[in-house]
């Protein structure tokens, strides 16, 4: 079987201008899988069923909807290729059911798991301190609301700044709710919650939440009482006849980086319950989640911290857990309140702020008088999808490992 497969392996190389073959990866098959041999002497292996499962031919993967057309029971787990053709830039596999799969080597390098060869591309966030007050990320309203390709490019730049810094100011916004909502919808659809969709509110306690009061609020993220917290939070101060009410921003990723190793581990391990119960008809108690959440590669991707909405801790914890959590949580609060972490800014009518609620904590000082704000939430998946689509359409960048544009 092995010798037969090896006889059916073809190598097709382009000839360079000087008459010799260009250096390229090569693919070889045996009974257990396919081995890719790279020019730098690295090797990686893929199971046959893995490659068939990831086939992107029209029989296996819908070319328009970008969805799988076959389930795992639709092919034999012991499947073996009938033929393997290795080109300079890709490998083509012919299967027994008379169809072929094509895999660019660039994709296989990123997908490699035995062993991993290349870490998936990740944008490193820019961690900032209070010094960011000297040059905060800022865009102009007329740029992002422009029609056509220029407006789309401006929205992409706007979202790139949010992805890098976790927030961005938008200047020149007409001080009315209609213009604010139109600007917000340039990003993505507004997320409906028990507060409604687009908000236009004063400190009248219309909802059972301290945000609708005039009290000071320490640095926190919103909607920790949702299983899926809001992705973006947008505020626009429409008017204020009084004093106080400065806005506070704290980079949660920076704050996490300042924690002691033991505090970091504790806040990454212990799930903290949250709740929202102040409005009639609303009782939100999601599954407990740690305050620091990581992806499967160990990168910090979300900070969930809201002391005001924190529920009853302890059930399921040990005595040591309780002690270590209080110490770690106190340490985080101390970092949040440090001069290095706190960025204060007095918002004015015409300046809207967009905050990545999965990263940047916000708060405010107490205020007096009449104060009118408007804003909204946008889902994390929604704004990231909008950015990914703009990157693909405007820059030809596709962030998917199994690139739909083969």
The helix count comes to: 10
Average predicted local confidence, pLDDT? 88
**How far apart are the first and last residues' alpha carbons, in Å?**
31 Å
Q: Structural class, from secondary structure content?
A: alpha+beta
Shape: globular
Main β sheet profile: 6 strands, mixed
Order of helices and strands: HEEEEHEEEHEHHEHEEEEHHEEHEEEEH
Radius of gyration: 26 Å
Q: What proportion of the residues is helical, as a percent range?
A: 10-25%
Domain Gamma-butyrobetaine hydroxylase-like N-terminal: 29-108
GO molecular function: iron ion binding; trimethyllysine dioxygenase activity
Enzyme class: oxidoreductase
Catalytic activity: N(6),N(6),N(6)-trimethyl-L-lysine + 2-oxoglutarate + O2 = (3S)-3-hydroxy-N(6),N(6),N(6)-trimethyl-L-lysine + succinate + CO2
């Amino acid at each position: 079987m092995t010798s037969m497969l090896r006889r059916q392996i073809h190598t097709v190389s382009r000839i360079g201008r000087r008459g010799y073959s260009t250096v390229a990866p090569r693919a070889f098959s045996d009974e257990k899988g396919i081995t890719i041999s790279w020019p730098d002497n690295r090797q990686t292996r893929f199971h046959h069923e893995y490659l068939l499962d990831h086939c992107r031919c029209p029989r296996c993967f819908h070319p328009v909807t970008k969805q799988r057309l076959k389930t795992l029971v639709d092919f034999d787990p012991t499947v073996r290729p009938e033929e393997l053709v290795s080109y300079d830039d890709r490998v083509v596999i012919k299967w027994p059911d008379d169809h072929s799969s094509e895999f660019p080597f660039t994709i296989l390098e990123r997908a490699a798991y035995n062993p991993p060869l290349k870490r998936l591309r990740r944008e490193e966030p820019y961690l900032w301190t209070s010094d960011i007050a000297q040059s905060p990320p800022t865009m102009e309203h007329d740029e992002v609301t422009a029609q056509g390709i220029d407006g789309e490019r401006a929205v992409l730049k706007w979202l790139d700044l949010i992805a890098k810094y976790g927030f961005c100011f938008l200047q020149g916004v007409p001080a009315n709710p209609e213009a604010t909502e139109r600007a917000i919808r340039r990003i993505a659809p507004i997320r409906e919650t028990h507060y409604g969709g687009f908000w236009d509110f004063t400190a009248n306690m219309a909802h059972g939440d301290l945000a609708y009061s005039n009290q000071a609020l320490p640095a926190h993220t919103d909607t920790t009482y949702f299983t899926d917290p809001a992705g973006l939070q947008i505020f626009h101060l429409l008017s204020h006849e009084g004093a106080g009410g400065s806005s506070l921003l704290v980079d949660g990723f920076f704050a996490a980086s300042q924690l002691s190793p033991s505090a970091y581990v504790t806040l990454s391990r212990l799930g903290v319950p949250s709740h929202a119960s102040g409005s009639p008809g609303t009782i939100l108690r999601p599954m407990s989640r740690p305050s620091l959440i990581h992806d499967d590669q160990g990168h910090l991707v979300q900070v969930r911290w809201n002391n005001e909405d924190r529920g009853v801790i302890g059930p399921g914890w040990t005595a040591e857990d309780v002690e270590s959590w209080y110490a770690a949580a106190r340490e985080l609060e101390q970092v949040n309140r440090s001069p290095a972490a706190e960025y204060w800014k007095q918002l004015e009518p015409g300046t809207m702020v967009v905050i990545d609620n999965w990263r940047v904590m916000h708060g405010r000082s107490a205020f007096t008088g009449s104060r009118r704000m408007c804003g909204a939430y946008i889902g994390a998946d929604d704004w990231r999808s909008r950015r990914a689509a703009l990157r693909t359409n405007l820059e030809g960048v596709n962030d998917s490992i199994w690139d739909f544009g083969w």
